[in-house]
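ok trying again, last paste got cut off:
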Amino acid sequence: MKKHLSSLALATSAFAATLCVTPIASAQIAGGTTTVEASITESTQIAMGWSVKKTLLGKTIYNDAGQKVGKVDDLIISPDKNVSYVIVGAGGFIGIGRHDVAIPVSRIQNQAGELVMAGATKEMIKALPEFAYANDTARRDQFVAAADKDIAKGKAKVADLEKKAGAAATEAKARIDLQISALQVDVKSAEAKLDEMKQATATRWKEFEAGVSAATARLRKSIDTATG
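nice, full thing came through this time. structure:
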């Protein structure tokens, strides 16, 4: 029986609820390298009897023609914790010195004890951007940029609602004004949390990550519900 490696994501019920089958291209960042943060150690025990260390790391992945695609170097959980990837060293398969690629675990199967990626060809693997680990500074910059973007969207939404309120009838204006007030509160909250992070030293930014994430999540929800 084929055991799908997407069961790796069942390590937590929350992760299992969000794991989805992802096209192979989405494992990479178009036009650049994939930069996701490693957050799983070799000793991690996973659901259904799988062990990262014993079953995945260092194991060879084959295509359905029996050709060696490469060896599994790591297991990665993406920053949003929605999709997991295996990092495969595939340079030998495509005939170049080094070419690590991120492959969604949903594309890998265990067939009679062998890891198989059906449909993998040299052309397909060679076309994928090379994977690179994000350092902590890059991760912080990426996080801050995303939060800044959410705040900018919130401000733009406030401006849009203010225009609508100016042209609305009395009853509609009152409703829109309430939405503007709620949205402004969430924008200010997100800005305050992000400012705290920006003022912290580079080594302490993760202490503020949860607070910023919660504030920007509320802001995004307010943006979506403020229809005018």
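cool. The first strand starts at residue 3 and ends at 4. Helices lie at 13-18, 52-56, 91-94, 122-127, 136-167, 170-199, 209-225.
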